[in-house]
Predict the structure.
Amino acid sequence: MSPIARASDLIPVPDFTEYQVPISMPPAPDHPLWEWFNVSLLLVALIAASYIALVNRSRRAMFLLTVAALIWFGFLYEGCICAIGSIQNVVLAAFDSSYAIPVTVVLVFLLPLVFTLFFGRVFCAAVCPLGAIQEIVAVRTVRVPSWLDHALGLFPYIYLGLAVLYAATGTAFVICRYDPFVPIFRLSGDVNMLIFGGALLVMGVFVGRPYCRYLCPYGAILAVLSKVSKWHARIPPDECIKCRLCEDSCPYGAIELPSTPPSREDRPPERRRLAAMLALAPLLVIGAAGLGWLMTVPLARLDHNVRLAERIHAEDTGQVEGMTDASEAFRNTGQPKEELLAMVADIRSRVRWFAILLGAWTGLVVAVKLISLSVYRRCDEYRPDRARCVSCARCYWYCPGEQVRLGLIDDVSELVDLETLEAKPTS
Amino acid sequence: MSQTKQGPSNDRQQPRPTNLPPGVIWGVVGLVALIAALAVFRVDTWGDRGSGLSPRFEFDVSELAAVDPALVSHAETAQIPVGMQTVQAIAAKPDGGFLVAGDRAVQMFQADGTMAQAFSVPDAPRSLAVAGEDHDFPGRIYVGMASRVEVFDASGQPIASWSEGLNQDSLLTSLAVFEENVLAADAGNRVVVRWDASGRLLGTIGQPDDRRGIDGFVIPSEFFDLVVPQDGILRVVNPGALRVEAFTLDGDPLGHWGEASARIEGFFGCCNPSHLTVLADGRFVTSEKGLPRIKLYSPRGEFESVIAATASLTARGGGQEIRDEHSPRAFDVAADATGRVLVLDPNTRQVRIFEPLESGAMADAG
């Protein structure tokens, strides 16, 4: 017998017969003013982040705002409700008229989107607590190979599609369920989610902001909006001298390098590749939609009623032995199995259409990525990739122009040899 | 110029130095990514793996469900099937018969269990009351829907529909009639609503009021019962507080009885008793859910005996075992003028009749 087993024998089974049951009163809901206060703080933080990213250009100020956001929106506010999770509230409200969504939640969803349309991803820079905790640990980052970066960068869009599917069908709020950092903010939670969050932070030391770049569904929306933002952070305060000093300064691989137009000989094959990708796009969408249809059953399995019905069926047909807590509880209610099966058929029917749409969406995302990789985009300077740049202000310091703006040097020529630069080709 | 040394150098053309070979870094990242993925896949979303503790530490309720046979004062004497898919409420008639509400209908039974009549109601009923001889309209039937009261005459003809004092949050779970008063327990708004016999709102009872010493009702689930015995004092279950509270019909609190306890004398679980009725002699009958048990209390609220123990209320369900400690359903109770306790079994969809044991039978049983 193991020491642990012997120890458990020594522990008496608790006896509750004399326990005086306390009278529990339900906690009062938060005062509405509290929610409005937090929305106001979100607004103030967004304004501050926009000002710092575009006007003040101080990495130190941005870092302080990041820490403040992490403390308030993360550890004190416990990460809920956040803009990322609010996607699901908004989607559920759109599809379920009986679901009432508070105005404050709508604002939490909309405000970062509006700011992104004007100033780029300043929400990601220093307001989002999930981004903030990763920003702080990103101290020894390495460059992710381009092929891997592009491939992993598709996941946020697919995750967004999944989150919409499950929210629209009322199945689950998967973004919240698998939020890696909320258990850390609350210092409590499922041990596996704590491991997940901790692992992301360890990865974040070497791969900057892994959740933001390769998982965050809200970041996917912001990336699209940021591409068309009215203003956006720039690396040089004025003209880029292409000194290459900022080239490796971004831990998130979000700096676009000056590009060289394809040679006359290269243009025909590049055009053919683009044509092929354009032709492939509808096939990808249709094929992936079909794949989504085929995935209906496994996708519906996230619904607890579907899982319960499958478990009950497996138990009744002798495929498994014993009962789970859920199947035992169901049997104890006396509810006919047929009612459960009818409910599951209805759930699967609803999920089927969303699964087809999810498949089509996934195909579209892949197609757009392939097309975008086939298109030559002219770039004359070192500039932030608007979709990926989180406006963290890390790159500013590397720009000689910024040194001049700060008055640390009188002219960029004090830092770089302009004549040599003229002769040196860009990478 | 010294400041220039603080600036970046154009010698740095390589990725940030990490002091670690790239192979080691990517190995660590890959390993950690694998751990992260495994952790996500190991999240037990549906609780399939249980608590992981030894069965020794399971919460065994069998001890709590056990009842000393010497405490049992009643025996089951009849079971009357109700032809409904779901049964919600039961009420005794002054003539010895009883009514059952469920599905979208009310069925009227004679004292011997023969169904005399049935009539349909416009929505799913949740509560039921029959006016006695002291009411302005003896024999009237009041049926509580979620947020209105439908009024029928003794033959089941609709007379009126009341909703004054109710709103979209209302959830009527119990009705009682005393003299000209009709009272409804509104679980949604956590108050008792009082009308006169014409449906005119007379007021509400039980709203938190520091000045009158009313803390309010704690109602975690859709069980909130009330009764008005012949003494004219309203008794309302405060289920979250695990007690029965007494009020005048004007809403003044008079006290409470009932103890939160796992012992047989007390009320156990999140919110009990789920149902309450009164015998003709003024003693109270309580019904608890979770661990279902039906008990008898004196008019002052002192525990007297057990009418139906957990064991006699479970293990039925037409061949399928039903362990009601997991069931969200509860047993509504009513008492007729002869002292019979009528128990509406939601699992077997029967009215089960319990009658007092013969004198001395309790001692023999012990």
Observations:
- The domain at 63-365 of chain B is CATH 2.120.10.30 (Neuraminidase).
- The mean pLDDT of chain B is 87.
- The first strand of chain B starts at residue 74 and ends at 81.
- Chain B has one domain: 63-365.
